[in-house]
Input
Amino acid sequence: MAAVKYIASEKLPDWLKSLAEKSRVLVPVAEGGGVVFRPYAPGCQPVFGSDATAPPKGSVFPACQELFRYERGKDAEDPGKGTLKLLPATEAEPTVVFGAKPCGARGFLIFDRVYMGKKFPDPYYINAREATVFVTMACSTANVENTCFCHWVGSGPADGAGSDVLLTPVAGGYTAEALTDKGAALLESPVLSDGAAKAAEADSVKAAAREALGEAPDISTSPAALLAAFDDMDFWRDQSDKCVSCGACTYLCPTCYCFTITDEPTGQSGRRMRSWDACMHFQFTLEASGHNPRPTKAHRLKNRVGHKFSYYPTLHEGIIACCGCGRCIKSCPVSVDIREIVQNAVARAKG
Amino acid sequence: MSRLEELKTRIKEALPGLECVIGWQKGFDPLHNTPLFMRSEADVDKLEWGPFNVHNPAVYLPTLAGKKVGIVVKGCDSRSVVELLQENLINRDNVVIFGMPCEGVIDLSKVKARLAAAGASAGAASAVTTDGKTVSVTAGGQTVAMPLAEVRADKCGRCQFPNAVLADTYVGDPIAPAAPAAAADADLAALDAMSVPERMAFWRYHMERCIRCYACRNACPMCVCRDHCIAQSREPHWLTQEDTATEKLFFQVVHAMHLAGRCTECGECQRACPMDIPVLALKKHLNRTIHDLFSYQAGVDPQAIPPLLQFKLEEDNIKERSW
Output
């Protein structure tokens, strides 16, 4: 492990500026009443306090991405024949995501198992993932919110899994720890100094944040409990009554990776687009025949909770497909609480 | 007996004949209440009334069509119920309406801003007290008091319907409406003062951060196309899936047009937006036009027909024969 470095708050713009000379640097900025990741430019005022409204999911997995373009034509030799030219998508841009909370970066570990597996490697994802570096900021007690539950899902406010550099707020600035080689390269900047003297303070900031989260309930039986509730539609009706079936929870989720593909034609040419899908929407598993295996919001919410806390962990060594950031709770228009649903399923299984 | 207890008693009396009664209960923290579906007497005991009942429960009624349900409403919510009745989207025989006088609901965005200005985080709220005039929020060990009048929803400051416009059971004494607002709403006035390019820039700036989650649509009680919405229909493929401000604004304009003369300005579209985009202004702008053209206000009279749902050969305020 590399030595701990330190950067004073007033030196941060210098570091960001030097990073932005080599790659796109996405930082959380205030826009209207929200905080979103936007490319850094000198003068930009990043918001490093509370967690961003939307996670940095789009850095690697854009809300809408062009897979390829196509052009139809006529064969000059044989007018009866058509031609089709495929134009590949552009390469991913080197990117540094700077100042996300660790949960926002850790979300991609859930993606990795799906899109970087041996069976169906996804070139678009792999391309963007490899071009992206995450400099995250450990939470202090000031960042612990009522909706945070990273400690329920095997994580914590200073969890470095998924991050390349972990910053920790300390008096006057931040300590910086490199967690990967990609991260170590970023810390070579001369604006960073030795942080050994600050390491103990950083450790206590991390410990205090972890303590502020309190004890996590035991949800280790959730995979079996949710499966046991699969056919109990009264249970799912009760859990989903107030859901309005919008996609806010899924689109704001750092671990939701479902997508849909649409062709966007304009005359003889067009584009094939991949965009975020949401299991809360009716079209999610609508089949070409018109049949929908998930016809109601109760079926769809069951899928969302089941996917994260049962089906995924069953396929992936017990790993829960949720990073506990709490955005789905905080930003739900009607305060649907996924923690409550999981606990209700666990309690139901106990009888 | 308090008014809330009386309301609970009346709901319990009606419950055996109903699929459920929709109201509100405490949510995951003291700043959040959440919709409650009462199916048992124990559920009714969870019912809350007060400024944190921000949601409009009328949004659930069209999805429960065919079932006999009860609904607890604030005055503004009752207008949505009336509008749904006007449009035959729900059946009067299938809905039992419970109301109490409403003194306004809070706007969480304003509370968050107040707390942030005091160096506290709404996400850490541990206690909230309200005496009807002041809201005091304790967060991160610090208590911040704020006048309710300054953090309530804008709609409450000019509310003309604090009592349900239609109710089967009304508990408490009706209260007087707010003094009608003299000037235009601040958000509309600000937009009016902009040049057209400035207004376009305003909407582009805000729509950039839209995530196309459609919470604005799904929280709207009058947005009843639901699973057939043009935003996502594949056949025909009206809107691209592109993540551009233009496309997202296009949807908002379509949404607003579909609500012209139907929108009761409950503000759920804007409240539900996770990205805090001021989309209500689009609906208010069209409502103002509808009011100027047809002297019409949505969701007030169950017998009235919204102007864009009827045809009149001669409109009072459209003098096309003399142009």
User: Anything to note?
Assistant: The CA atoms of residues 17 and 41 of chain A lie 7 Å apart. Chain A has a mean pLDDT of 96.
